[in-house]
Structures are given as C-alpha cells and as structure tokens.
Task: structure prediction
Amino acid sequence: MLNITYISHSAFILSDGAHTLAIDPFITGNPTAKITANDVHPNFIFVTHAHGDHLGDTIALAKANNSQVICVNELATWLSSQGVNAHPMHIGGSFKFPFGSIKITIAHHGSKADNGEYMGEPCGVIIKMGDKTVYHTGDTGLFLDMKLIGQLNKPDVMLVPIGDNFTMGIDDATTAVDFVRPELAIPMHFNTFPIIPADPKEFVAKVEKIGCKAKALDYSETISL
Ligand code: NI
Ligand code: MN
Result:
C-alpha cells in the first residue's frame, strides 16, 4: 500500500503507513500549498535539485523532524555543512532505505542554489515503496532515455512536469508518458506561478489519447495505491 499526497508544484508526500517520504518539499512561500511546513513530518526527504522551488523547506523540515535527506552528492555535502543528516547518492546509483529503495536518474535542467553555488547535477528518481514504483522526473526536458527508464523500472506512477518554460510542456510531457508507459501519470510543476500556466484537463485528455491513464490531483489530495 502506498499513499501519495500532492502538496502542489513538485512537492509530494509518500507514505506506506510506517514511513513518510517527502519529495521536493517547497511549502513556505508556495502560493498554491494548502498546508504549512509544520503539518509535514517526514522520516525521509528526497530533493531533485537545489532550486528554491524544490529545496524549499528541506533544511527546516529535516532539523525539526530528524529526517534524513537523500540527494546527489554535491547537494548532500552542502546540506551536511548546514547540520542536516544527508545521504549522498548519484545518477545511476540505487540504495535500500527502511522505506524501500531509491534509484537516481538523469534530468536535463540546472541546480544552482539561492546562495549562488552550483550543487551538482539535477536528477529524477525511481522510488520503490509500499510495493509500488514511482518515477518523479524532477524538473527536466523530454529525453529519449525515458524509454529505458520505463522498460527497466515499469513505474506504477509517473510524476511529470507540464508547466512548460522551465520544463516539459503538455505535449512533451505526453510523449514522456508514452515513453515510460506508467499505470498512472500525475501532472506537476504547473500553475504555481504565472510563468508556468497549464490546463491539467488538456494533459489528461492527451494522455488518454495515447492509451495511458492520467489524473490531476488537487492540492493536498491523497490517492491510495
Ligand atoms: Ni528547477
Ligand atoms: Mn522547478
């Protein structure tokens, strides 16, 4: 069993009943989040890259909840210097955690932190938890290797950006879903700011046309798999 809660933007909470994993917990300053950072109590946090709309509340949450933060080595090293318990990984690597496993994938994007320092490569992630496999692409453009990611990992759920400008837009995101062929695609990274407008209904319709299933989650909505 796996519960997936959509905070908004690229922020999700995964829970198997025993463990809670937050992904890209951008809550404070997120105009679409319906909760505050105090409402989230993750055991683990996964961060795809250092941009403020993904790193978000990671440091405060990790300190308040004694969470372990999982991310690429460069970002993990910096988080460790900030007093955070960080587990460094890198692209292509996987590791078993108490909740399941993490494998880091490529993403085509950037990863500069608000302090001006570059924090290594951005990434996506394959999460195995609660007998389900979730692929969070991170912020990325479309890339053909998504086909291989789909073939090798057979994700139940794909979390895919559709807001365009900084990431894939709806048409590229639909092609990405076609490459990966998940059981369910959930759109993210749209309508948080005026620069990334997208109609999730258009995405859902286009994904259905290629014979896959998509569902746009409301802010704070939880689905159980
Ligand atoms: Ni970004
Ligand atoms: Mn972003």
